[in-house]
Amino acid sequence: MIIAIDGPAASGKGTIARRLAAHFGLPHLDTGLLYRGVGRIMLDRGFPLDNVEIATAIAENLDIADLAGEALRTREAGEAASVVAAHAPVRQALLDLQRAFAAQTGGAVLDGRDIGTVIAPDAPAKLFVTASPEERARRRFRELVGRGELADEEAFYAAVLADIAKRDARDSGRSSAPLIIAPDALVLDTTTLGIEEAFAAALAAVESARR
Ligand SMILES: Nc1ncnc2c1ncn2[C@@H]1O[C@H](COP(=O)(O)OP(=O)(O)OP(=O)(O)O)[C@@H](O)[C@H]1O
Ligand SMILES: Nc1ccn([C@@H]2O[C@H](COP(=O)(O)O)[C@@H](O)[C@H]2O)c(=O)n1
Residue ranges of the Cytidylate kinase domain (predicted)? Predict the structure, then answer.
C-alpha cells in the first residue's frame, strides 16, 4: 500500500510518516530531503539558487544515500530547498526516483508537498497534515533550539514564523506542483494534537482507507 502524506513546513507530516512506516513495516522517503539536498549543494558551491540549469544538473546526479546529516535540516537549507523546488526542470529530474520508490513491492510511505497530487495520485491512503502557522513555528523553533541554532529567543521565534509564512506562500503559489490538498486526501489538523494523538488519528485514517 502506498501512503501519501503532504502538508506545509513543520506540520508534523514527517513524524507521522516515520511512525506509519514503522507500524506497517514499509520503507519511508522524506522527499523534502531531495530538495534540501539540491539546495544545500547550491549553497555550499556558491551557485545562485535561481540558476535552473545548475540546479537541474545537481538534481539529476543526486545520490539518495547522501541525504543525511544536520546540514540539511537548517533554516538556510529549508529556504534554499523551497527556492530550487519551484524550478519545474528540478522537479522533473527528481520525479522518476520518487515514483520508483513509491512503486516498490509491498508499498511505501512518502511525505512532501506533491505526493498525493503528482508523485502517487492513485495512492489509496492520502493525508494532508497541517497546523496553524504559529504552532508550526513553535515546533520548528523548539527543534532548531535543540540543534543549537539559537540567537535571541524572541527574535528567533519571530524569524522562524516569518520563514514559515514565506515558505508556505512560495510552496503554494508556484506554478509547478504547488502545495494543494488532493481532493481525496483526509485533512488532519494537528494544531491541538500531541504527537501520539496525531499518529493515532493518522493510523485510523489509513486503516479506514485500507478497508
Ligand atoms: N503533533 C505534534 N505536536 C508537537 N510537536 C510535534 C508534533 N508533530 C511533530 N512535532 C515536532 O515538530 C517538529 C516538526 O515535525 P516534522 O519534522 O515531523 O514536520 P514536517 O512537516 O515533516 O517538517 P518539514 O516540512 O520540515 O519536513 C519536530 O520537532 C517534531 O518532533
Ligand atoms: N515533495 C516535495 C517536498 C519538498 N518540497 C520543497 O522542499 C522544501 C523543503 O521541504 P521540507 O519538507 O523538508 O520542509 C519545501 O519547502 C518545498 O519547497 C517540494 O516542493 N516537494
Answer: 3-206
Q: Per CATH, the architecture of 2-190 is what?
A: 3-Layer(aba) Sandwich (3.40)
Atom 5 (ligand 1) nearest CA = 139
CA–CA dist 4, 125 (Å, integer): 6
| CB 6 within 8 Å of CB 113 | yes
Q: How far is CA 144 from CA 41, 90, 170, 175, 207, in A?
A: 21, 27, 21, 30, 33
Q: Which numbered atom of ligand 2 lies nearest the CA of 114? A: 1
- Asked if residues 5 and 111 have their Cβ atoms less than 8 Å apart, the reply is yes
CA dihedral 190, 115, 94, 62 (to 10 degrees): 40
Q: What is the pLDDT of residues 95-119, one digit of tens each?
A: 999 999 999 999 999 999 999 999 9
Does the Cβ of 113 fall within 6 Å of ligand 1?
no
CB atoms within 10 A of CB 23: 14
Average pLDDT, the chain: 95
